[in-house]
Amino acid sequence: MRVVLEDVSFAYPGSVEPLFLNFSYAFDAGTVTAVVGPSGTGKSTLLDLIGGLQLPDSGSVELHDAESSRIGPRCSWVLQNNMLLGGRTAVDNAALALIATGSPRGESRARALDALTRFGLSDRADYPPERLSGGEAQRVTIARCFLSAAPIILADEPTGQLDSLNSQLVFDALIESASDGKVVILATHDQALAQQAHAIVDLAG
Ligand SMILES: Nc1ncnc2c1ncn2[C@@H]1O[C@H](COP(=O)(O)OP(=O)(O)OP(=O)(O)O)[C@@H](O)[C@H]1O
Ligand SMILES: [Mg+2]
């Protein structure tokens, strides 16, 4: 898997200056790339362009997938505003990544529980999102992302609400996903984590 951006230019409608002007970069499988830069420099927008939520005005965003017969989504998202289904428990939310691709419910829940345990949430498995703290909800979305078979992980500030111990747990899981052959792209303000990534894209520079 390889994500290749070539000469990408993009401006939000109505904005004076383009956010990206002839931006080129290739994100490789097996690599965690940290996207850094001050607030408003376009980190989230870059993930949107890669995930297909925004289209470039010119240039190209291509996902080169060696497994041409792959079924299912190619991008697994961790969004800035934790997308969890209300009224469903943490374990059901985490299991969604598996159930969505046809895994049996019982097995999906068992694997989801393992993932929640890994992120320190075994005693929150039966809580609905409404009863989780911001950081707990964030870790449920990470667990769900970690379970997804999608070959690209787009993580937007996945540690924004976490303490340093939990941030490191999450980062280690991203490194592990990269070791499994995924393309991992992490937008972050956390310099300590960015320094541990395999590559850094600095949008300020
Ligand atoms: N839907 C939108 N319409 C118009 N402008 C937008 C839209 N979304 C973002 N922008 C603008 O584009 C710029 C980049 O936003 P983006 O969210 O990509 O930044 P960011 O680097 O992720 O910031 P942060 O660190 O605060 O998350 C900002 O100036 C923002 O105001
Ligand atoms: Mg952002």
Report on the structure:
Pfam families: ABC_tran. GO terms for molecular function: ATP binding; ATP hydrolysis activity; transmembrane transporter activity. One of its GO terms (cellular component) is plasma membrane. It contains 6 helices and 8 strands. It folds into 2 domains: about 1-75 and about 155-205, Rossmann fold; about 80-150. The mean pLDDT is about 95. Helix 2 (about 90-100) crosses helix 3 and helix 3 crosses helix 4. The strands form 2 sheets. It has a 5-stranded parallel beta sheet. Strands 2-1-4 form a 3-stranded antiparallel beta sheet, with no helix packed on it. The protein has about 200 residues and is of the alpha/beta class. Magnesium ion binds near residues 43, 44, 80 and 156.
Number of H/I helices:
6
- Write down the oligomeric state: single chain
Provide the list of bound ligands, each named once. Answer: adenosine-5'-triphosphate, magnesium ion
Largest beta sheet: what is the strand line-up? 5-6-7-3-8
Q: Give the CA-CA distance, first to last residue.
A: 27 Å
Q: Which structural category do the helix and sheet elements fall into?
A: alpha/beta
Which second-level CATH architecture of the largest domain applies?
A: 3-Layer(aba) Sandwich
Total separate domains: 2
Keywords: ATP-binding, Nucleotide-binding
InterPro entries: AAA+_ATPase, ABC_transporter-like_ATP-bd, ABC_transporter-like_CS, ABC_transpr_LolD-like, P-loop_NTPase
Domain ABC transporter: 3-205
GO molecular function, one term: transmembrane transporter activity
